Amino acid sequence: MSILSALNTGAGGLDASSVELSVIGDNIANANTIGFKSSRVVFQDTLAQTLIGEGTSQIGLGTRTQTVQRMHTQGALLTTNRATDLSLEGSGYFVVSGAYNGTSGTYYTRAGQFTLDKDGYLVNMQGLRVQGYTADAAGVVGTTVGDLRVNSGAAPPQPTSNVTMRANLSADAQVLAAAWDPTNPATTSNFSSSVVVYDSLGAAHTVDVYYRKTAAGAWEWHAMTDGAGVTGGTPGTPSEIATGTLTFDAEGRLATVGAQSGTFNPINATNPQAITFSFGTSTGAGGTGLDGITQFSSASVTTFTSQDGFTTGNLTNVNVDSQGQVVGVFTNGQTRVLGQVAVAEVPSEEHLHRMGGNLFSLMPEAGSPTVGKPGAGGRASIIAGALEQSNVDMAAEFVRMIAAQRAFQANSK
Known about the structure:
This protein is mainly beta. Helices cover about 10% and strands about 40% of the residues. It is built from 2 helices and 28 strands.
């Protein structure tokens, strides 16, 4: 082996050490890059010749770079408390689609810094759309993967169908001599409760329930609303939409609930709208008679009212659960599943092609990815309000840098 071969061996060592220093520098530079995966250089020896007549004696010609291998270990999680910041815990990648550096396609990333664009699509910092499953108006998640749009409009209203009233009607109340007057309910009743109900258009109607004592332990009730909101009504004049009777036993328990009558016909909405008023389970129906309206010798008071309708609502916030379901929070207090983020499992993730911008593209050697719902089929689960940090170990990188520098200096001599 000549002196020139020895010099070439040193030159090869310089090249290999330079590559390693470049990779180490890239790792250190990306120590704070979200979702970054560090790399390491894999070297291989170079065989020059086998000495004839010397048995198995061989002379090497130094080293060369075999490949640069990415280390796909899990990075630590950084809590951000931002609802659309997502991180993956486990194996898999977010899938994004769109144009990057002039090339349209599908890309894979561990960086979950997402936001909503002006059209309501979940996108990354480059504007590429996150892929997932869109839910229908009932919150049922579909099965087709596509651009995930989570701000697709307002939440529709739900008309009231049930009203629950709980109160105590004073056993000491006087039986009124004046007859019930629907145009003057306040003076021809003993007590009243109020509740707001909604029609099929989401319009609110205030309903006042007036209670009138007719005999000892016997009451009638009348549900009234402003005539301005009902078909055929007169603005400013109460209109009766439901009525019925209640009786109580000697212990103040609800004994019977008479059949409800009346109709509610809101203007321009679904007519008639059936609303059932519930006053508790009477003893005659097998109940305790104490879970709703009672008649004790104390002041009349309303203790609870509820109804199951709500008005239309606009999206105000989104939350994401560990299964990647995007849940919308609306101004009417309702929540609904809007979609689900998809996760891709790549058979050989080391063969993904690094594109820059925290993105990878698919190479044939990586195999065919399986895209599905998070937490299923071995795919990673999602943690919302957190980001996966770079997996670069700074201490280890500096140790490697010192070793690479020493190798470079030795080869240069």
